Amino acid sequence: MARTLRIGTRASQLALWQANWVKSELEKRYPDLTVTLTKIKTQGDKILDVPLAMVGGKGLFVKEIQEAMLRNEIDIAVHSMKDVPTFFPEGTALRCITEREDCRDIVILRPGVTSWRELPQGARIGTSALRRKAQLLHIRPDLQMIDIRGNVQTRINKLTEENLDAVILAAAGMKRLGFESQIGEYLSTDVSLPAIGQGALGLESRIDDDVTNDLIDFFNHPETAWAVRAERAFLKRLEGGCQVPIACYGTVAGDQLELTGLVADCEGVHCLKKTLTSHVDACEATGASLADDLLIMGAGPILNEVYGTETFNPGKEEV
Predict the structure, then answer these.
(1) Catalytic annotation, pick one of 75, 83, 165, 265
(2) Which of 29, 30, 57, 181 is 20 to 30 A removed from 154 (C-alpha atoms)?
């Protein structure tokens, strides 16, 4: 019997690419299924005049989409996993985590420069992410970090419009939108540990919608799901009152998980990092344990102090 499945998505260029990819995969698998997109403007899309790190609240890029699902206006939501808070409204849940695209951060450099390390003293770097700022400042405290907002193309344009020396973005978004040729340098995860869930998509649905859940379960990629679940458990353990950059990245080989977590202050002066390994079945326990280890190492005072007016927001967009 033919039916329609409604996807809720933000209207940004990258969000629409992601939603259309899910739509295409569903249509290939179920030729009789009609799939539609519903564009929803979130609070994060409406706040354009201040850095998102200064905006209070969680789930800035998902809340309105979740509310539409609870009103039965959509059947599933497609999210960038790094935008998704660790909690969900009663009645919905994260059903699937897709195979991860390249998780790394990348740098777009001004002409004539081949590496961000070659930039002159006081070089101006465009990024909206506290996580990226802190890790680069830890290596190069001389850099000037300039807040930039907007979609991928807008941020690329800031390089010349705002006379920047470099702009930092996520490799996944660049590749998905066809901007790979503009990447000047990939940052290793040793230099810039990715955001929680970076490069993966999450499909959210109503818990009691068995028909829809059966349709979308094929999207779940176990290796990515184990890694991202561990990363999110790390974030959840540290989330209460955290006001600073946090990063976590997991990789899976066979049945083994390797998980690295980081907590830093906004200036990159104090940068705490540790790696744990475990069986994938213990992914969430490993994430929580890694968070506890960083607290023992001294993350508590960092988490409890506000640096300037910037705050860490789980559910804050990084492009």
Answers:
(1) 83
(2) 57
